[in-house]
Design brief:
Blueprint lengths: L2 E4 L2 E4 L22 H9 L9 E4 L4 E4 L28 H27 L17 H12 L34 H16 L7 H22 L3 H20 L11
Antiparallel strand pairs: 1-2, 3-4
Keywords: Nucleus, Ribosome biogenesis
Function: Involved in ribosomal large subunit assembly.
Organism: Lingula anatina (Brachiopod)
């Protein structure tokens, strides 16, 4: 500490007093990165910063670019909408725009829930097909197959159209690994493939081979029992007949004993 002399006495200068208070709430944990953020980090993509507020010429005020009260350049805020050249002139363009916005909001919410499930290492359920503006032939066939199987009988009693062809390959053909994955897991999988290729002899499943051996023994035993001659059965029948005759000659059985007076 710095020292000074005051009236012939050495005095040390003390630092300013500080009172450390405990934190009211715990330190917030860092949010898990989304799938796009992981991909952008891997590829080195840098997002351009967007202005939080934009000037709106109609209301002469600053409005947020996204989120609550973000009505800048919104089609629903217009009093008239242009009908496209290839669209039905009697179609409600306001209703169409409102429906498209509702679908976009639902799609964003679905993606947000998927990111949360992926960050929590939970299984992400499939949701069928997401709506698209220009669906392809494959997309329509998959949507038709899903609509047929959405009944209580899983499409067992759903009627087909007169010239409708059976849908083929409605499920996923192949499962691709994500672009951003566990490198150690991928490395172990590749080493496992190389070790299998390097082995000279084929791999043998001991459990399966044992079950097959026991099954063959049981089949041979059953075959031997079915081919055994029927002499033993005939001998047993003859012994039973003789025993029956002897009991008849003795008489009495469970009744009173008969003897000579």
């Amino acid at each position: 500490l710095p020292v000074e002399r005051v009236e012939g006495t050495i005095v040390a200068k003390l630092p300013a007093p500080k009172t450390i208070l405990p934190r009211e709430k715990p330190i917030p944990k860092p949010k898990p990165e989304t799938k796009w953020q992981q991909y952008a980090k891997l590829k080195g993509i840098q997002n351009k910063k967007k202005a939080r507020k934009v000037w709106d010429d109609e209301i002469k005020d600053w409005r947020p670019t996204w989120g609550y009260q973000s009505r800048v350049n919104d089609e629903l805020n217009e009093w008239v909408l242009e009908v496209p050249a290839n669209a039905d002139p009697y179609e409600d363009q306001f209703g169409k725009a409102k429906k498209a916005k509702t679908e976009r909001v639902a799609k964003n919410e679905l993606q947000r829930m998927r990111n949360i499930a992926r960050a929590s290492k939970l299984k992400v359920p499939g949701v069928g097909l997401t709506p698209t503006d220009t669906p392809s032939k494959d997309h329509l066939s998959k949507a038709l197959a899903l609509a047929k199987k959405s009944t209580a009988s899983v499409g067992k009693f759903t009627d087909s159209l007169p010239k409708e062809k059976p849908v083929k390959n409605t499920g996923k053909k192949r499962k691709f690994e994500p672009n951003v994955g566990d490198m150690s897991k991928e490395k172990s999988a590749q080493l496992d493939i190389l070790s299998k290729m390097a082995k000279a002899g084929p791999t043998v499943d001991v459990t399966k081979a044992m079950k097959q051996h026991l099954l063959e023994e049981e089949q041979q035993r059953q075959k031997a029992n079915s081919e055994r001659p029927k002499k033993a059965k005939s001998i047993k029948k003859s012994i039973k007949r003789k025993q029956g005759k002897d009991t008849k000659r003795g008489g009495g059985g469970k009744g009173k004993r008969r003897g000579r007076k």
